[in-house]
């Protein structure tokens, strides 16, 4: 991982950070803005870490003007020393009693008549109105920023590879450690313990467990229950370990101390076939519609889906976000795949009565000749004894 790790914290190279800021300057120029507000709060908003390497905690706002050192405001005061250690090529200061008030003060000093100000990130409506009262209408650049995140740089792909390895470790830990009688909270503990010591953090770990003979769940849940695993259950999961702002995603299904019933064998056969069909058309130049068309095997086998079929990943939940013919996510975007896009292919095949389902899939990168999976945990419906 050349250029990504220093003595204390993982870092991107100076060249990579410069590339990102150049792309933002070009975006600003295309929208006719002279200054840019970048905002994040409560760990939401990916632009702050993408442009500064500071993983937003409570609140952060950056004032970015081409040709000047970016000014990063951080909350809380005790977060300031760590932000100064992590933030790349920024002037870092405490946001004071009000980050927005301090940002307003900086804007008044910097913005001259006739200049326009852009904004990126989840700025609250009341703060948006306050800043507009000071400097004029703010130009929202989120759509353009999202386009910048679709194609990954080589260093971003390296970081996704680390996240994929940590996610795979979680799946292997489940296979090795799950026992009949465990509840879903214990499954979460197994997952997170597999990567915490290597700097990984939880992005998501979703589980569903239900009896194969009397199923009542078709899609993983976002919050863990106290339900305990029993012999004859199906367990399926969606796991994303993150490594410094980049999460991978791996989805697998397991039977617990029993072979699959005929229904679950057929569900997983359809899921595997759908994954192979969709992955088979992934290549530069393929359209989002091509991916949806490839998934028709699901309906041909008498099933449907609940979760999204495909979504972009790496820096957010990105386009294309697609459903299938029987569970569409319309409209299908007019989007063509490019080399180094990252996609999660995840057919969550279910019965049409929504009582039973399975999950399979993983993060792949579009290559010049097709795709490359970033995961190496075996696919297929596995049995945990």
Secondary-structure map with pairings?
Elements: H1 14-31, E1 35-41, H2 47-52, E2 59-64, E3 71-75, H3 80-86, E4 91-94, H4 99-110, E5 117-120, H5 125-135, E6 138-140, H6 142-150, H7 154-177, H8 184-193, E7 201-211, E8 233-243, E9 246-247, E10 250-256, H9 262-281, H10 288-294, H11 297-300, E11 304-305, E12 310-312, E13 318-322, E14 342-345, E15 349-350, E16 361-367, E17 370-373, E18 382-384
Parallel strand pairs: 1-5, 3-4, 5-6, 10-18
Antiparallel strand pairs: 1-2, 2-3, 7-8, 8-9, 8-10, 10-16, 11-15, 12-13, 12-14, 14-16, 16-17
Helix pairs in contact: 4-5, 7-8, 9-10
The CATH homology group name of the largest domain: Creatinase/methionine aminopeptidase superfamily
CATH class of the largest domain: Alpha Beta
Q: Provide the structure class.
A: alpha+beta
Sequence of secondary-structure elements: HEHEEHEHEHEHHHEEEEHHHEEEEEEEE
What ranges have pLDDT less than 50 throughout 5 or more consecutive residues? none
CATH-derived architecture of the largest domain? Alpha-Beta Complex
Give the CATH topology of the largest domain: Creatine Amidinohydrolase
Number of extended strands: 18
* Domain tally: 2
- Rounded Rg: 23 Å
Shape verdict: globular
The averaged pLDDT comes out at: 95
Largest sheet data? 10 strands, mixed
Strand content: 15-25%
Helix content: 25-40%
C-alpha end-to-end distance? 37 Å
């Amino acid at each position: 991982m050349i250029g990504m790790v220093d003595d204390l914290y993982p870092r991107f190279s100076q060249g990579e950070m410069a590339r990102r800021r150049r792309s933002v300057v070009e975006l600003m120029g295309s929208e006719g803005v002279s200054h840019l507000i970048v905002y994040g709060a409560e760990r939401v908003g990916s632009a702050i870490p993408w442009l500064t390497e500071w993983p937003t905690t409570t609140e952060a706002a950056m004032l970015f003007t081409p040709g000047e050192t970016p000014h990063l405001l951080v909350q809380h005061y005790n977060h300031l020393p760590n932000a100064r250690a992590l933030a790349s090529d920024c002037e870092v200061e405490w946001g004071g009693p009000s980050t927005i008030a301090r940002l307003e003060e900086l804007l008044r000093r910097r913005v001259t008549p006739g200049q326009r100000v852009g904004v990126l990130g989840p700025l609250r409506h009341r703060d948006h109105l306050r800043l507009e009262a000071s400097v004029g209408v703010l130009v929202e650049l989120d759509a353009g920023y999202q386009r910048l995140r679709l194609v990954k740089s080589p260093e971003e792909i390296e970081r996704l590879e680390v996240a994929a390895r940590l996610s795979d470790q979680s799946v292997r830990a489940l296979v090795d450690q799950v026992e009949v009688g465990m509840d879903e909270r214990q499954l979460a503990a197994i997952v997170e313990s597999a990567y915490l010591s290597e700097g990984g953090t939880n992005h998501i770990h979703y589980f569903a467990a239900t009896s194969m003979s009397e199923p009542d769940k078709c899609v993983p849940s976002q919050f863990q229950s106290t339900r305990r695993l029993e012999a004859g259950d199906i367990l399926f999961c969606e796991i994303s370990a993150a490594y410094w702002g980049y999460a991978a995603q791996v989805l697998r299904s397991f039977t617990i101390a029993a072979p699959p019933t005929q229904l679950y064998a057929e569900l997983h056969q359809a899921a595997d076939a759908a994954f192979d069909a969709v992955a088979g058309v992934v290549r530069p130049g393929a359209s989002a519609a091509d991916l949806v068309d490839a998934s028709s095997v699901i309906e041909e086998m008498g099933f449907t889906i609940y979760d999204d079929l495909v979504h972009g990943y790496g820096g957010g939940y990105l386009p294309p976000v697609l459903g299938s013919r029987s569970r569409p996510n319309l409209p299908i975007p007019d989007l063509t795949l490019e080399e180094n896009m990252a996609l999660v292919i995840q057919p969550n095949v279910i019965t049409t009565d929504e009582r039973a389902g399975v999950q399979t899939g993983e993060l792949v990168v579009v290559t010049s000749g097709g795709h490359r999976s970033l995961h190496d945990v075996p696919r297929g419906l596995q049995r945990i004894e």
